[in-house]
Amino acid sequence: MSKRTVKSFAITLIAACALSACGIAPIGPNYQRPALDLPTSLTSTGTAANVDWLVWWKGFNDPVLDGLLQEAAANSQDLALATARIAEARATLDQNASNFYPTVDLNASATRRRASENAASFNPGGNPYSNDRQLALSASYELDFWGKYARADEAAKARLLAQTASRGTVLTTLYANVAQSYFALRALDAQLVLAEQTQATRTENLRLQNRRFGAGVIGEMDLRQAESEAAGIQATLQQTQQARRNAESALAVLLGRKPSDIVNPVLLRGADLGTLYAAQAIPADLPSDVLARRPDVVAAEQSLIAANADIGQARAAYFPKLSLTAGLGYQSRELKDLFDPASLLWNLVGNLTQPIFRAGAIDAVVAASNARQQQALASYTQTVQNAFRDVHDALNNVAAGREITATSAQRIAALRSTLRLADLRYKNGYSSYLEVLNAQRDLAQAESGLIDIQRSQLNAVVSLYKALGGGWDASSVTAQATK
Question: For residue 317, which of 371, 355, 367 has the smallest C-alpha distance?
Answer without folding.
Answer: 355
